Amino acid sequence: MKKRSKIKEGTCIYCGVVGFLTDDHVPPKNLFPKPRLGLLTVPSCERCNGSSKLDDEYFRLAITSVVDGMAFPIAVDAIRKLDTPEKDRFKRSMLRDYDRENGDLQLDRPRLHGVIERVIRGLFWHHQRRFLPIQADIRIWFTSFDEAPMDDMGLEGQLEALRRQHLHQIGRGVFTYQYMFGSDEAVFSAWYLRFYEKNEVFGIIFPPPI
Ligand SMILES: [Zn+2]
Fold this sequence. Notes:
This protein is of the alpha+beta class.
């Protein structure tokens, strides 16, 4: 196994702190079955890398267990069975809003959006080799969870063009994505991500306010 910690010094692509860097997986590596070959990593400080683990787990459970806001009972069982002590608080938080009667799981959207924001920041760095300013406004829309109509997000016109872009793939169908930049090629860009071929997420990066 290759040692991954403290490989170099530089700027964390998430928070901009300069210091020792680790390799952070984009998207989170817990989404991929083993053997995990050909995954993408970006330079991240230890704090940013380590602080997202439970969010990544929440994200994985959410996208594998929920379709149109309904939780599959089998998936809820899987969440209950997360029995390591460190997962206990996490498990309770995941189950807290599960409505036994109608199977509805109230997902923590800001938490899910946070994971996607990191993925988009990671992909931005991977393709552009430049730091996306922290103040950049990343708007995110899940087709399965978020009810806001697409035109509210300004995505309608982007979608067709996005689907014509080069299709990138990581981990044999686990994660695919397409992206395109606005005419200034600076920050403004649209991102179309798919997890397990069915969970679609759109993101648009708007430049930071001047
Ligand atoms: Zn950082």
